[in-house]
Design goal:
The protein is an alpha/beta fold. The protein is built from nine helices and eight strands. Strands 1-8-7-6-5-4-3-2 form an eight-stranded parallel beta sheet.
């Protein structure tokens, strides 16, 4: 099954003084998703933004808001993020364990797409019982909580394994961490179709061109 390539710039790497302008440039370059990382200072060491920022961004962008909850208590964040206009909420298997399926089902009952993320030290097979409940699987190719890390090469085998596990379902495979024009093609070839890029997009002098370059490097005709 052929799946549409979606570039998802992460605002974690953006300049918040001109965030609205940068997002528009990414969208002009063909970015389909906007990746929104929420950190609580407990599941990961850092804090980030939350629902008030997303609500403000929704006023200036019609992109698909891809919200990634790196938090210990994801249920506390679902309603505020929904009210702020996000389209998808991704939760971590490491934060939920046996409750993962229940939370994914709740997210979908709220009219949102439900994503499930695994960190680098978690084997793909750990999430096998929950594949049927997830619209998207997010594979972290760096350790969550910090931007600008180097892509973990072992993630390619995990991507391929998750793609094999989801072959009976219409599941997006998202990868986040250390992806740029030099390695996006092998990530896509391994089975990913949603690519999170932070510094590769918002760290570029020409944001629109950076997105176009990623799409071209992935093999998309533009």
């Amino acid at each position: 099954m052929s799946r549409e390539l979606k570039i998802a710039p992460s605002i974690l790497a953006a300049d918040f003084a001109i965030l609205g302008k940068q997002i528009k440039k990414a969208e002009e370059g063909g970015a389909k998703y906007l990746h929104l990382d929420v950190m609580d200072g407990r599941f990961v060491p850092n804090f980030t933004f939350g629902a008030p920022v997303f609500k403000s961004l929704r006023k200036v962008s019609g992109m698909f808001f891809d919200c990634h909850l790196m938090v210990e208590r994801p249920l506390d964040f679902i309603a505020p993020c929904k009210d702020a206009g996000v389209d998808s909420i991704t939760v971590h298997y490491e934060a939920l364990g046996e409750k993962t399926g229940e939370v994914l089902q709740f997210i979908k009952s709220e009219g949102l797409s439900a994503g499930l993320s695994i960190s680098p030290d978690t084997e793909a097979d750990a999430i096998a019982p929950f594949i049927k409940d997830a619209d998207m699987i997010l594979i972290m190719s760096v350790y969550p909580g910090f931007g600008g890390q180097k892509f973990i090469e072992g993630s390619l085998d995990k991507i391929a394994r998750v793609r094999e596990m989801t072959k009976e379902f219409d599941t997006d495979i998202e990868v986040d961490g250390g992806i740029g024009v030099k390695n996006i093609k092998k990530v896509v070839d391994a089975g990913a179709n949603v690519i999170v890029a932070g510094s590769a997009v918002f760290g570029a002098e020409d944001i629109k061109k950076a997105v176009e370059d990623l799409r071209a490097a992935a093999g998309e005709k533009i």
